[in-house]
Write a structure and sequence with these properties.
By secondary structure, the protein is mainly alpha-helical. It has one domain. Helix content is 53%, strand content 7%. Strands 1-2 form a two-stranded antiparallel ribbon. β1 and β2 form a beta hairpin. The chain is globular, with a radius of gyration of 13 Å. It starts with a helix and ends in a 5-residue tail after the last helix.
Length: 87
């Protein structure tokens, strides 16, 4: 990946995260950041890899870590976002 492509990808991530934090007013539907769906006005939906980890006893911390890597969210935001999916 070229340096310019990397910068543009990072900029897209920042803009999507900012839009989500602001309430999603500028997003008209789901968007994808590195394969992670982000609903308008909501937290990014967990990937299949994150969901698979959540289904395994004792893997919650690994799921949160992977989710944070995929979304760029902080620890509290990631834990809160995954709480509805925790079995």
């Amino acid at each position: 990946m070229s340096e310019i492509s990397d910068i543009l990808l990072r900029l897209d991530r920042i803009e999507a995260r900012l839009t989500a934090l602001e309430g999603g007013a500028a997003v008209s539907g789901p968007i994808s950041i590195d394969g992670v769906q982000v609903a308008a006005g909501g937290a990014p939906q967990p990937s299949e890899d994150v969901m698979a980890l959540l289904r395994q006893p004792g893997k919650e911390i690994h799921a949160i870590k992977l989710y944070r890597e995929q979304t760029g969210l902080g620890l509290k935001e990631a834990k809160d976002a995954l709480a509805p999916y925790h079995f």
